[in-house]
# Entry
Amino acid sequence: MASADLRISDVIAHPLRATLPDAQRTSQGDWPSLDIVVVEVRTDAGIVGWGECLARTSSPAYAEAVETILKPVLVGRNPFETASLWRAMRGRLTGRAGGMLVESIAGVDIALWDIMGKVAALPVHRLLGGAGRRQILAYASSINWGDDARAEAETRDCLARGFRAIKVKIGQTPRAAIARAELIRKIVGPEIRLSVDANWAFDLDEATQVGEALAALDYWWFEEPIVPEDIDGYRRLRERTKVRLAAGESDFVATQARDLIATRSVGVIQPDVARAGGITETRRIADLADAFHVAYAPHVGWSGAICAAASVQLAAAQPNFLVYECMIFANPLRENLLTRRVGSFQDLVDGHAAVPEGPGLGIDIDRDALARFTIR
# Structure
């Protein structure tokens, strides 16, 4: 069947939940389990695309949104019309810049790109134009915000695995955050690149204090130091400190990321493909950043395997790609959902992740695992 004749026949949302072997801790609290939604888009030619949307704790609600709000504008349409379909899905959202529905759109959009790649017999990164990358640089994410003994053990494990760049979680107080940054720098020495993620733990004055210390310790970037919506705060912090700022994982669409990028308030933009409207909108954010000479580093976080695979495809394609977030903690939704892992810390070679060359996202879903983690 020619691509012009292809039609979407069904959209199925699978709400998943998995308990983590070890709870993750940030400045915002502990996370003992994770939710995602896997989106399955079927076509009348039997070609199936797979996507994922971020759903921290309420995947059944997201699944219902996909099937009751988005599916009606998709069935019968050509999956190659991604720009038109994205606008049609966004049209179901009234009066808000982002939120749950844009995250739901992300799962559908990723699946549409997977379908296009399968029809064209090309990996998504080649459909996107490609930057010719066969492998991408990865950093270890993240050293937990907790006691020093756990942080030191996790750091040494990252070094043993060959990582040359590591991200560290920090939180209140500024004194405690600076002490953690000093500890990790002492452990790894001067040659390892370090960054920190505060998950909005500070106000502007506290972030200034921490940022000055990070610059003195030669940290690579200071991620989400203050609340995401305080755009003016980011601009002011950038003027006060020499450390590079990073943000964007909390942005849903390019118009939200625009001011951070255009003002050079951040040196690294970090959209999450499973939140920021999928590949279509995440690419727009990364392209906008490239126009302003701002680096793109995809956020993966606590998402599942499909988000990781889509992030690898985008990383391989974008000219301003900096480094890929490679999660180092055990996550069943990332490790067991595919027949073969993508972008996993277990499979790195010299700190680099391989880029799949198979069609679409280059993945195959393990349907038994999908059923096992589905919330019923």
Remarks:
- Residues 126 and 149 are 44 Å apart (CA to CA).
- The mean pLDDT is 94.
